[in-house]
Every structure is written in C-alpha cells, then in structure tokens.
Write a structure and sequence with these properties.
2 copies of one chain form a homodimer. The first copy, chain A, is an alpha/beta fold. Chain A is built from 18 helices and 23 strands. In chain A, the strands form 6 sheets. A 7-stranded antiparallel β-sheet of chain A has the order 15-14-1-5-3-21-22. In chain A, strands 7-6-13-12-11-10 form a 6-stranded parallel β-sheet. The termini of chain A are far apart. Chains A, B: Pathway: Cofactor biosynthesis; NAD(+) biosynthesis; nicotinate D-ribonucleotide from nicotinate: step 1/1.
Chain lengths: 548, 548
C-alpha cells in the first residue's frame, strides 16, 4: 500500500499550480459568504481519445497526494496579495492561510480502471471555495496521466501481448515532467520498461538502453581499446584479447558468408566492429548492438554476429540487435535469417536467443502495418508518438458542479454533449454471461443498486427512445471512498499492482470495443429515476426560445 | 542579468533525468579509456514545426542552469549500482561521483532568436563521456521550450500585434511541468499573460482570470449576497445596496431594449445577474463577466451591461465580457453593437472601454477565420491547442557528434536530410539592404568571417549547383560563449528581455518566411571551404554500393 504522507514528488504540484480564476472566484464566494456552501463536483470526460471507445483512468494517487498536502504558504499568500491588490479584503487572506482539504470527501473509480465518457471518474464534495480551488490541479494530474496510459494500452494491443515494449520518449516529451509522467503512466498502461533513469529510480520501473549512433561513430577500430581482456562467464578463465577472438570469428564468417542467405562477399565496417567489441567488453551479458550506423545488413548485423559468436565461446548469451531506420519488417526478417543460419552453421544454439529490437518513429499504424508484413521483431522502442500522444495530445476532462447545498446544478448547452448530469450519483458496471462489461449505469444517490440476475432498465441519458433491460451476471460498484474529511480512506495499490489492474481490465473488455477501426461504443446509461430527474430539471431551466 | 547560482526550479531536472543508454555508453567509454577524449556535439533540428519556416530558440538558460548543477548524488550512484549490477567495475562509480561540467564549453545562439533547420543552436565541447551524459536533458529542455514558444509566436502573428493574448492551458497540459513550461515560453513567444498562478509567481509573468460557469451556476439570485454595499471608486461615499442599483439599471435597460439592435423584449436570467453582481462587488475595478452560461446575447450581455452601468455610476470602468462558446465572430460583433448602443443611449462613455475576450478551442486557423469575418474581439484566451502544440506536439531536435580528438565525425544516411555537417563550425547571419536576414551561413572554425559589402559565396550544403554570392549589409555572428569550463561566460537576459528579443527577431524576418500558407524557406548555407570539407569526408566514408 502507498502512503500519502510524502508530498508530491514534483515540488511544483502545489496549491498555486492553478488558474487565477479559481482564486478570484474563491474571493467572490468568500465576499458573498458562500465559500462554505456544500458543493459536489464531478470530474469526467466527454469522448475517449485516439478515436477509440475506452480510456484508462490514471492520476488518482497524484490527486490524493496533492489534496493531502493542499494549502497556501505565507509566501503564496504574499504573492497573491501583490496580484489582487489593496482593494481585496485582508480577511480573505487570513481565510486562505487556513484552507486545507480536511472537510473534503473524494469518491472515485479505482485508478487503472477502464472508463467511459460521461461517467464521473472522481466525485468531490466539500466547501464550495475549497473544491473550486482544487479544480485545475486535479484536471492537470488526471488529464495527461489518463491520456498517456490509454495511449500505452493501445500500443500494447497493437503490438500483442508477447512483444517487449520499451518507452524511449524523454527527449521529445513536453518538458522534464511531461517526460517523467509519460514514463510512469506508459509503464502502468502496458509498457515493460523505460529509458528514463529518473523514472526508474523514483517509481521502481525497469530501465533499458544500450548505445547510440554517436557511440559507434566515436570508435576508430578496436585498436583503440587499451584493455581487451574479458573473463569467461563462469569466471573460470580470462580471454586475454577478446578483440582478437572477435576478429577470428569475423574471418570465419567472411569465408562462410557467400553460403549465407545474404549470398555476397562480406566486408563490414571495422570502426563499427571496434565499437561493438568495446561495448561487449563492458556489458558481456547484456550485449545489444545498434546495427544501422553504416549499413544494417551488410555491416551491422554480421559485425554483431561476429562479436556474439566470440561471446558465446566465453559462455555468454548475446542479447540482440536494435534496428533504427529503414524497412523494419524486411530488416527484421533478413536479420533473423542471418542469425539462424549462423547459429546452425557455427553450431551455436545460444545465438538464436538474440532478440530483435526496433525503434524509429513507431506509432499504432506502424505496429499494425509491421504485423501485416510478418515482421520478426521481439521488442519495440517507442518515443515521440507515445509520450506526446501525437495522435491526440490532450484529453478534455472537465470538472463540473452538480449540486450545491442539496440543490442540483445543471449546465445547459445547445450542444447536448455538453449538458451535465445533475446531482450526486452512484454508479455500477453491469457484466454479462462471459464476464465482460455490458454497460455502466448511473443512479441517483441512495437508489437501490442493480441486482445480479434481475432485469434493470438502463436508459440513454438524453434520448428518450433508447432504453434496454439488462439482467447482469455480475454487478460492480464503480466508486470507492478514497479521502474522507482529511483522511485517506482506502488502500492505494503499488505501481505494479496498477499495471496488473490495467492488463486485467483491458483483457476483460469485449474485443469490438477495443478494435482500432470503428470500435463499438460502450453504453453508458442512467436509471429511470435519474432519467426523469434530469429531464424535469432541464425543462425547468431551459429558456423557451423566441423565433423572429 | 539572471544568475545560474540557483538550481533548476524543477527539482527533477537532474543528471538522472536522462536515457539509460547515456550511462551505459559512459561506462563503455570509461572501460575503453575514451571517456576523456575531447568531443564536440551540435544540437540542431531538421525542420521547423507547424509547416512553418522559422522557429524560436528557447531553453538555453534552463540548459545552462542544469549544467551548472550537473552531477550525480550518492543516492543516484547507489541506484545505478543496483541497476548495472556486480559485473560493473567499481572504479566507474568512483569516476561518476566526480563528474561535473567544469571541463565543458557551450557556444550557443542567444535564446529568443529566430532560428532555422540544420544550424546548430547549441555547440557543446568537453570530455566525451560528460558531453554524452547531458544529451537527453538538453534535448528535453530545448525541444518543448522552443516548440511552444514558436507556437505562441505563430498565434501572435495570426492575432495581430494589438490583441491581448492570454494563455489558459494548464488543465490540458502534458503534466504539471508541461503546463508551467508552456506558460513561461508562451509569454516569451508573444503572449501577454497566463492563467497559471505558479508561473506568475515563479517567473514574474502577469496573470489573468475571472470566473467560470460554475460560479454563475452556483448563485440563486442576488438575495444570496448578504452584504451588497460597495464603496465609490474615489472612496467619497458608499452605495448601501449595489444590488438594488443593478436592478434599477436592468429595469431601465428593459424599457429601452426594444429600441436596441437586439429589438426584442428583454428577459435575462436573474441567477446570472446575482452572480455578476457578487463578482462586481468583489472586483469593482476588474469586472469581467463570462456571459454564455445561459444565453450570451439574450441574457449574459444585457446582464453585464446592467451591472456595468451601475459600476459606472460609482465611478468604476467595467473591464469587459468573455465569450466561451458559439460563433465568436458574430457574438463579438453583436455584443459590441449592444455595448455601443447602451453607452450612447445612457450617456455612459466609460462603457465603451469594455473589452471583449474570447476563448473556446482557439487555434491558428480559428484566428485567421475570425479575422476574415470581421470580429470585434480585443483579447483571446487560448488553452489546449497552444500549450500541447496540438498541430505538432514535438520538435525533433537532435544532438550529434561532429568532432572527436580533432577528427571530424559525420553520420551518413540514405536520407540526405539526416546527414550531419561535420567538424566545429562558426555561423553568421547575413542581412540585406532593408535589415532583414537573407541567409545563415556556416563556416569551418577559424575561417574568415563574411564582411559587410563584400561578396560571399554561399553554397547549399548538399546540392552542388545551388550557390549564390551574397553582399551583406550587416553581418551578425550567430554564436556566443555561454559556459566556459565551469563558469558562466555571458550575461543572461531576464524573461522580459527575452520576450522583447522574440518580438524584434520575428518583426525583422521577411513577411514571406512568416506567412501561414506556403512560406518561403529561409536559406541555410555553408562556405566553399566547408562545402568541400563535407563532400571529401562523405566520399571517404560512404561505402560503394553493390548492385545485384
């Protein structure tokens, strides 16, 4: 279980990380003595990202940690005084000095759940001014975390369950913390490791990485390596000149190469061979070579094989190669052929364990296309498209007032998609015979929950004629209480448990909701009571138009 | 002048905020005793973002601050030991413990400059392992800062110099720091203010904001306001019931409204009127009303006018309205008509100073389209599209080795766009008769600089036939030394000076390079000497293909 005692790791996640209008509204509420009115807000989104029909909810623990440490420092208040000016009543700043989340309650769907439009992810209750003041920070913490976790889950679906997925995005991320947030939530969403060392240290995520082109470019042959000795894997002996052994392997390979699937005379770049040898001496049991600096199939792959054969002689198993340009499907197929052929020709079974990693501008489309072309890639390194969510770089979650001092609040809009569902609500997920979720249903607070095996009338919230009886085989309450008037009220999972939850939740979802092309929308409905409540309020509040 | 003595404000910007392969490469260099080889790297990008032909360079001060505090803590090293395992030579960790930027030199183009593809923004020299270790963090700090500043500059160009531009993006940003970075660099790139209070406090950026729909929804008439007294602007007296005054103004407005351009019977929402009144009592000299909660033209704008007339009676000048939905051009034109008509009818000249602010999913296209429709908007609030750079969420700057121990390094590629320009280089910007830049030219280090009035042969770096004599009227050296072996070597501008520099640099650029549709590419060229050097090296290193 995670504790909320430590403050947010990003020291900038504080009360002032908000929109100024939250402060000015708080003042106007305070001035009108409405600041302690009891308010309920719903945090939800209106459309799943990436033209998909599901979203992974993340950012809850970050939000709770922010709440647990919520408050304004003297320095903050000093700054606000200078901004708001002399006309502001000094009593307001005295009020702000003592604001905290001790009178706030948070109900939420568990983090890592698959979630759908219109269903509140977080329901916040508390004094109007306080629950208004936290709006922007909660949205900032939930929006990107959920977006990037969803993106990672989609990449995982496209690559299949066996591929090892590596997140390499830090350098292209939207700022240092954009990178760190992405690394964390990509892991939760379905990736196996990150290149981001800070994320590894802070979040206990496996880290991965080998070398860059600059490493290969910086070697001039293996004579540059002053100490070329390398111990055997079992420490039984030391090879005095591993470089010499590599050269011998290359020479044997050259004699044989015309019989290989390449069927050409072999002439590899010897600077590259030097770089690979140096890297193998440094990491004999984790030797993974970037093979495209000069020419992937004519130089990089055979050089890798020469070094790998030498490593095998010393009892090590070579890790593999990384492809970073060109036609990845073709190159992976050819590379695998060369590796298999060499393993057989040189009677070196260990060589077959070498993995093929591919990177270079990979997105969901690339993954689908590679699959169609029968690629032989074992692992994908993904950067820009994953961490910046290039296909849709923002999730539009909103935070709307639904009740004030027991009275429902409803935002109307000419656009029915923007109408909010008023009042405090409960929510349930109804599952069918095969265990897969059929629909989510929202009820007025206190209504009787749906019961397993009994017909429950589910209604479209805004379209009268759309309704259906559902006889659920399983009923899951959507909300738990996570924060109850100043106290953590629920156990929080570790990052690894969250990752596991995402995997299970995505697996449980029906295939047609997950597919990339024209997925079936998942149904979100309301109870009959809630339906009637919405529509009575709507008629009460909507002005009757005047045609002219 | 800014000092580098304070560490980066984001406590996560540290040596471990890097890709793991930087560490593994550093180890392999160290193992091969190459770690102190003298290396030069260029940081540059290959294509300007947003289908444009210019980029604003930002992130230099953040990079220098990172460098000034660069190093690994004991805790960092402990973590790396657990990750790298027992086979790693302990001497490497001893080496890492003392690594810093004291032997590193940084030349760069001044921050806030307009910059172009292929021209190094930052040139780093130092020990190979050290300058390799800083790669990822420099890219993270430069990529997003430059991208979002460029985006802001483009929004500013589209909106024109007079519009007041407000950045409202925090809630949709890519993480808390993504939001903070965006707020800072949008201000530098051309925006006037941000809603982000933390950005205001940390960076001395003006902050802006009024109230949300929830504020309006949370009022039930003005009877809810317990104290409706309001002092006159000159403090000469106090209006005992400002709410009553507002009601009288609304009543007068109702009698007159049929003669207004609206030409209908006036019936506004009184809950909204209550909310506006409460807000005006809190902020009488900064009264700006969000007018679209119920109905912009039938309720919000007339309610605003009623409150504004009452404020004028007390000697205040109302600030204005915010439109947040619907047809912004039409609504701004109509709102302006109503305001002008009332100002004249009620002999209240101050009302005319009310500004019209518009928000709601604004991007470059919207700004251009609004201009075509003759909008009357004075100020734009921009969020998602601005801060997440929705049109292109990543800049692809790279960091490539160009020289090692005096020998040039050149990355070859089948894609000529990816070939790097080898060796240490100087750079100059050549200006024409009207002062506008004509082209940038890169020279080999130590070559004689172009001279005002003398013809200089500028060559395309990769296409033999493209060359031209340029007779510059002004020659600006591109690079300054910012960090010289452990010491800050150049004054750093304040954020306001940076903003000023961006404005001047964009203004100086020829219009055809800046236009949105099919802008003219700006020429980046090399000297004859550098051209020859590139192409001799290319022939030396490129393998001769084998057709089969």
């Amino acid at each position: 279980m995670q504790s909320l005692a430590t403050p947010p790791e990003n020291t900038l996640v504080k009360a002032l990380l908000t929109d100024y209008y939250q402060i000015t509204m708080a003042y106007a509420y305070w001035r009108s003595k409405k600041h302690n009115s009891r308010a309920s807000f719903d945090l939800f989104f209106r459309k799943s990202p990436f033209q998909g029909e599901f979203t992974i909810f993340c950012g809850l623990e970050d939000s709770l940690r922010f709440l647990a440490h919520f408050g304004f420092s003297d320095e903050d208040i000093q700054y606000l005084k200078t901004v708001m000016g002399d006309t502001t009543d000094p009593g307001f700043f005295e009020y702000l000095r003592h604001v905290d989340a001790s009178d706030v309650t948070v109900h939420a769907i568990p983090e890592g759940s698959v979630v759908f439009p219109k269903v509140p992810l977080i329901r916040v209750e508390g004094p109007l001014a306080v629950v208004q003041l936290i709006e922007t920070t909660l949205l900032t913490l939930v929006n990107f975390a959920s977006l990037v976790a969803t993106n990672a889950a989609r990449f995982r679906l496209a690559a299949g369950p066996k591929a090892r997925m590596l997140e390499f995005g830090l350098r292209r991320a939207q700022g240092p913390d954009g990178g760190l947030t992405a690394s964390k939530y990509c892991y939760i969403g379905g990736f196996d490791a990150t290149s981001n060392v800070m994320a590894g240290k802070l979040h206990d995520i496996p880290i991965a990485g080998t070398h860059a082109h600059s490493f290969v470019s910086s070697f001039r042959g293996m004579e540059e390596i002053p100490d070329r000795s390398l111990a055997y894997a079992d420490k039984s002996d030391t090879c005095k000149d591993f470089g010499q052994l590599v050269k011998e392997k290359l020479s044997q390979l050259q004699s044989a190469w015309i019989d290989s699937p390449a069927a050409v005379h072999l002439e590899t770049n010897l600077d590259e061979l030097g770089a690979f040898t140096a890297y193998a001496i440094a990491f004999p049991s984790k030797f993974l070579a970037l093979v495209d600096t000069y020419d992937t199939l004519r130089s990089g792959v055979p050089n890798f094989i020469a070094v790998a054969l030498a490593l095998c002689d010393l009892g090590y198993a070579p890790h593999g190669i990384r492809l970073d340009s060109g036609d990845l499907a073709y190159q992976s197929i050819e590379s695998r052929k060369y590796i298999s052929w060499t393993a057989e020709r040189f009677k070196c079974e260990k060589l077959n364990s070498a993995l093929i990693v591919a990177s270079n501008d990979i997105n969901e489309d690339t993954l689908n296309s590679l699959a169609q072309h029968g690629h032989r890639i074992d692992s994908f390194g993904v950067g820009t498209h994953l961490v910046t969510c290039q296909a849709q770089p923002a999730l539009g979650a909103v935070y709307k007032i639904v009740e004030l001092d027991g009275n429902p609040c409803m935002k109307l809009s000419a656009d029915v998609e923007k109408v909010t569902i008023p009042g405090k609500k409960d929510g349930y997920r109804l599952h069918g015979r095969d265990g897969a979720p059929i629909c989510d249903v929202l009820l007025r607070e206190g209504e009787k929950a749906p019961v397993v095996g009994e017909a429950f009338l589910c209604r479209h919230p805004f379209q009268e004629q759309k309704r259906a009886h559902v006889r659920p085989q399983k009923v899951t309450p959507l909300y738990k209480t996570y924060w109850d008037k100043g106290e953590a009220a629920c156990e929080l999972p570790t990052i690894h448990e969250l990752k596991q939850r995402v995997t299970e939740q995505v697996a449980e979802l029906r295939q047609d909701h997950k597919r990339r092309l024209n997925p079936t929308p998942y149904k979100v409905s309301v109870s009959s009571d809630l339906y009637t409540y919405i529509h009575e309020l709507w008629l009460q509040h909507a002005p009757i138009g005047e045609l002219s």
